[in-house]
Amino acid sequence: QLQASGGGSVQPGGSLTLSCAASGSVWNINTMNWYRQIPGKSRELVAAMFNEGGTIYADSVKGRFTISRDNAKNTVTLQMNSLQPDDTTVYYCSAGVVYYSPDYWGQGTQVTVSS
Known about the structure:
By secondary structure, the protein is mainly β. Helix content is about 0%, strand content about 50%. The protein has strands at about 1-5, 10, 15-20, 30-35, 45-50, 55, 65-70, 75-80, 90-95, 105, 110-115. The strands form 2 sheets. Strands 2, 4, 5, 6, 9, 10 and 11 form a 7-stranded mixed sheet that branches. A 4-stranded antiparallel sheet has the order 1-3-8-7, with no helix packed on it. The protein is globular.
């Protein structure tokens, strides 16, 4: 129902764009989000965007990452700039009524930042 793409490898300071499209039986979407997996811990919210345009960002990515949506197409994009090695992990798109408990998850996409 959610299909993510755009992961890859980049050097520190580089940029990547992640994209995610919702299709099929996806209902009651108020927020579309990006999470990432912290090794040994639960997934953490990276960014969320509400239908009306409001956004939430993790402190660690503020000023570097930008989330955007196309509500008509049910797509969400995460532009990641100034990437650092600590950003290396698997990123997941999600969607649902509330950002802190998404109803739908996409498959993960690997982001690797390394020199």
